[in-house]
Design goal:
Strand content: under 5%
Shape: globular
Structural class: mainly alpha
Helix content: 55-70%
Amino acid sequence: MVTPEQGTAAALDLARQAAKLLDGVGDRAGAMRLRQAAAMIRHDAGFPARDAVKVPLSLMKMALALFDRDGHRTSDAAIHLQAAIDRARGARPLGPRDEIDPDLIAAFLSELPAQPPN
């Protein structure tokens, strides 16, 4: 019997392999979107599901992915949407003396392709 954690780990491994294949055929944008989806799944695996925010949070993530896909990831709307997602998850904004966890930075950077998309 496969546990939910094992299933998630297997799916993330497949996503990682698929992103490498997409990179190999030159579909860097597709690979990046797949890596973004995998990062959201990985993050959500450690996030306790709260039914009251589950559907709205999923819809906000889909909208943010559309902003990213269309090249508007730094638009005011995308920035406010990301802030709303963070608040729904219970994250607090970084303060002036806060530091980002180096392991989190390393995990994020490991998902980026070696070369930026054209």
